[in-house]
Prior knowledge:
The protein is mainly alpha-helical.
Amino acid sequence: MKTTIDFPEHLLHRAKTIAVQRKITLKDLVIQGLEHAIRQPAADVEAERKARAAALIAALSAGKNTEPIGPLNRDEIYDRQQGKWD
């Protein structure tokens, strides 16, 4: 079946380069990529998403301000931007 897909120019250029390096057609490269994406179980995708979320939470928890600070007035916001807060 034929279809038309509009790729960003930089992505298409890179894909063509990779296809030439692998000595395959662009069509075969796209098919391989789609087959790889389809083979990857949804559970793996969900596990990767959860791992990224856990890493983000860990990074945020490593910072000083882990407790909610509540609403700030204009002067408090300015002081925080200027580094005048504890």
